[in-house]
Amino acid sequence: MRRGRRGERMGVNGEINVVSLIDVMMLLMIIFMITAPMMQGGVDIDLPSAEVKPLEPKNGLVVTVDRTGQIFVDDTKLTYEEFAGSIKALSDRKGGGGVFVRAHKSVDYGTVIRLVAAMKARGITEVGLVAEPEENR
């Protein structure tokens, strides 16, 4: 027990001061709100431009081919054999919203066709090719 100003006894204060905790929480929330758009994952590629409409956000699978010809499914790097063996299961697990193929503009046309043919051979019929709209360039 502590004594007050005039010698009277004061009880123990059992309350926690949460104002500082709320301040820290709000600061962290602001930091996450600012940095979240910058943390978008994915493989950095330069898409070819074409007369296309912007994509509607869907829950499809994204297959990316970078400038060196490496294949990525979402953010996972695969060889062509791994890709061909697992693309049907990956597409089904993603919800069957189709597959979007993103390829760097310097990638050989044969590489993209080989991927699309592998998907078609395994029964994936909804395959889209992603390009950058021309007005954004």
TrEMBL record:
Specify whether Protein transport is a keyword of the entry. Answer: yes
Q: Where are the transmembrane segments?
A: 21-39
> What UniProt keywords apply to this chain's record, in alphabetical order?
Cell inner membrane, Cell membrane, Membrane, Protein transport, Transmembrane, Transmembrane helix, Transport
Biological processes per GO annotation = protein transport
Q: What name does this protein carry?
A: Biopolymer transporter ExbD
Q: Does the keyword NADP apply?
A: no
Principal localisation: membrane
Q: Which family does it belong to?
A: Belongs to the ExbD/TolR family.
Q: Which InterPro entries does the UniProt entry name for this protein?
A: ExbD
Compartments, record wording: Cell inner membrane; Cell membrane
Coiled coil start-end: none
Instruction: Show the GO MF annotations.
Output: transmembrane transporter activity
Membrane association type:
Single-pass type II membrane protein
Which terms in the GO cellular component ontology are assigned?
A: plasma membrane
